[in-house]
Amino acid sequence: MKKRSPMRIGFQGELGAFSQQAIRQLLGLKAEPIAHQRFDQVFAALDAGKLDAAVIPLENSLAGSVHENYDLLLKYRAEITAETSVRVIHNLIAPPGVSFRAIRKVYSHPVALNQCLDFFGSHARIERTPFYDTAGSVKMIMEDRPADGAAIASELAAKIYGAHILKRGIEDDRQNFTRFFMLEPAGAKPRTVRGAGKRPWKTSLVFSIRNIPGALFRSLGALALRDINLVKIESRPLRGKPWEYLFYLDLWGHREDQVVRNALNHLGELADFLRVLGSYRAA
Amino acid sequence: MKKRSPMRIGFQGELGAFSQQAIRQLLGLKAEPIAHQRFDQVFAALDAGKLDAAVIPLENSLAGSVHENYDLLLKYRAEITAETSVRVIHNLIAPPGVSFRAIRKVYSHPVALNQCLDFFGSHARIERTPFYDTAGSVKMIMEDRPADGAAIASELAAKIYGAHILKRGIEDDRQNFTRFFMLEPAGAKPRTVRGAGKRPWKTSLVFSIRNIPGALFRSLGALALRDINLVKIESRPLRGKPWEYLFYLDLWGHREDQVVRNALNHLGELADFLRVLGSYRAA
User: Fold this and answer.
1) pTM for this prediction
2) CA of B116, closest CA in chain A: separation in Å?
3) ipTM, 2 decimals?
4) How many A-B residue pairs are in contact by the CB < 8 A criterion?
5) Using CA atoms, how far apart are residues A139 and A15, in angstroms rounded to an integer?
6) A159, A200, B159, B224: which has the fewest C-beta neighbours closer than 10 Å?
7) Is A44 on the interface with B (CB under 8 A)?
């Protein structure tokens, strides 16, 4: 019997990246994560039919929205079909046999190093050494085996490269979450993700309105007057059009719910541009 | 005659950082930039009276809002008194005497390296080498003088450390702007910034409302029904309170304008929490 080929799921980063953890949360171990260097390459590969789906970060609780990916959502026609939230936990990771006392240099992405300043503050002998990628720094110490070197990355990266966790959760702020979307080709039947069950529906959309006083107020009226609640709203200047704005908006409900359809029709009357990016179960 | 001591202006990063360029745009060369490692240290120093003002980034056109600094604006009592926008231009920078043909390694912050992928794509012999800081990478190549090394940073960093620009504007996307705020102690008489002239006033505020359907709609009504226009709005979940949200909002007008005062009073009736962060001339 021919073995069914695994789902190919695109992401940006090295194996062991937090995006890969998001893929596992959504699809378990049956999915094959396909690493890409850049976000636009992930979108292009999905668009070209080389991937079954893609998983990309949209927002971090400390760093804010990833505008590049919102732009790419607009540029390509993929649809959001699921979301998940990954708690970003930074671990101190070393090759087997290297003890904490031996560590003098710690490699990681500067953003990760900067999120562990309390740790470095209380271990002055340890030097922060910037590296290209969190998971990539684990791969590097496992290949080069410096006697005094460690990395900061996810638990998954430690597992993938066979390294040991010396200290868990050394990040300064535990309220560090990243929200990921799963994208599938527009019109495809969305695949089932783990634990979606009975969680409520969310719908993400983007629209633009002319910058006249009250324009956003009236647009939100299309939802509020129907008792549809917002989850998130964010405005962004339209490139090259200084007086126009895009709004990214998440609401509770499914695009096929009658009340949501009515609200979207109403919003369409007011907006210069409106696109529904997808409906999916809340994480 | 005693020489007047220069204004001490705090920022985060190394000398030559884009924040220092923002300080120059706002205050010219009469201000003394005081470097800090972390944003919270900048806010704490301003709060403790060790600085006359601080200049911090709030938003990048590609990367989005800097939520950490919005949080710090809430935590401390400083007031926004000016804004400016810096075009982020990445330059290839080397020590004097090093030619472009000699370059094999380029050092910079990974975010900057990632914003110059077209350059690296067309010069495959050059290796991207992550470093802690853009301006810091210029400082390093001027101290260590590698024969084949260059850095990516601002023109200002090249000037400060006496390095040469080999190639200007090697960033992939020219729509790369960062918006900075100048902060001064609450209640202080705001100092005059360059070119503020007759530019229109903006006011920034933050408020929270309970997550009931239509709550944001009614809140925006306080502005819309008075023909006050929005510049920007962004929602953010309140930490530890999953059903409550903070909204960051910029509007056109000064907090002392009668119509804005009325709107703020009205908004105060609807919001659980409201704070005006400052009124300032638009950049």
Assistant:
1) 0.79
2) 12
3) 0.71
4) 102
5) 9
6) A200
7) no
